[in-house]
Design goal:
305 residues, mainly beta, 7-stranded mixed sheet, Lipocalin, 13% helix, 4-stranded antiparallel sheet, 19 strands
């Protein structure tokens, strides 16, 4: 073989290699497919412990007022904050977010669609599912010092989606129209000190799953084992906040009791239960105040710790 063809072949190989390297803030579709997905076993659909939480964090009511129900965007403007989440759907500008999901984020993974992208320190939590009611795969995507996307870990929460029991009405409905009415999708996620905190809930009456719904689970990222699981019916809010040694979350639904909960971050036990007039949706910490958007009312709480 002559030298000229060999030079040409080498140049082509180098060019192909360069094309395969993600540029700043980018990743290839193949990168995420190389991530090992850890399937998680079915969790207990009950509280793993039931002691009073010992966190020092306490909520003191500061203000409360009714809202217009449909004025979410105006509430975010008044509070002067935004949702720690990226907009996945084009043109989704109803409420302020971190902006459109970055272009380097894969829109599909293992046959599922990207349904939610939550902000994380130096990265993004990506949630994939069949649709918006079916978030089951969680992928942590980081951006390294070179500006390239790195997929750190992935978990399959499929075993978390269905409570072991359902009421008769739900069973009849799903036989007629298909399953999925009480799918406990991943609602929100955060990571702190080597522990992953994940909220799973379905968006219908608690009785549909016989009150086995709306948990927060703490997972040790070193062992993939459950450290604790909260009591049921503590978190179907769209967000939760980690504050020092506590997690602040909320639960409520039509004709059901509506409360904020302060959980001990080391055990998941309830340290404080705060009544609100309707189901909490957005729970956002800003400085020393916690702002809570409920279905028909807005609150502010002073956070003491």
């Amino acid at each position: 073989m002559s030298k000229i063809p060999m030079i040409r072949m080498t140049a082509i190989a180098v060019a192909l290699t360069l094309l395969a390297i993600p540029t700043r803030g980018q990743s290839s579709a193949l990168d995420i497919e190389r991530v090992a997905v850890t399937p998680l076993a079915a969790p207990p659909f009950k509280k793993l412990s039931a002691k009073p939480g010992r966190t020092r964090v306490r909520l003191d009511p500061s203000s409360g007022a009714p809202n217009a129900i449909t004025d979410d965007a105006e509430w975010f403007k008044r509070v002067q904050t935004r949702l720690n989440q990226y907009s996945v759907l084009p043109g989704d500008t109803t409420i302020p977010t971190l902006g459109a999901v970055p272009g380097f984020v894969p829109r599909t993974f293992r046959g599922l669609s990207l349904v939610k992208a939550i902000g994380a320190d130096n990265g993004i939590f990506l949630i994939y599912g069949k649709d918006g009611n079916d978030g089951r795969l969680l992928v942590r995507c980081d951006v390294n010092e070179r500006g390239s996307a790195v997929f750190a870990y992935a978990y399959d929460f499929s075993a978390y989606l269905d409570a072991p029991r359902k009421d008769a009405e739900t069973i009849r409905f799903e036989k007629q129209y298909g399953e999925g009415l009480v799918t406990q999708r991943i609602n929100w996620v955060a990571e702190r000190d080597g522990v992953l905190y994940v909220a799973n809930a379905h968006n219908t009456y608690a009785k549909s799953s016989l009150n086995q719904n709306a948990y927060i689970t703490a997972i040790d990222l070193r062992t993939n084992a459950i450290k604790w699981r909260s009591a049921p019916l503590v978190c179907n809010s769209s967000t939760f906040e980690i504050v020092d040694d506590a997690i602040i979350c909320g639960y409520g639904f039509t004709n059901e009791p509506d409360f904020l909960y302060v959980l001990d971050r080391s055990t998941g036990d309830i340290a404080q239960k705060q009544f609100v007039k309707s189901g909490p949706t957005y729970i956002i910490l800003k400085g020393k105040f916690l702002y809570v958007r409920c279905y028909n009312s807005d609150y502010a709480f002073k956070v003491n710790s």
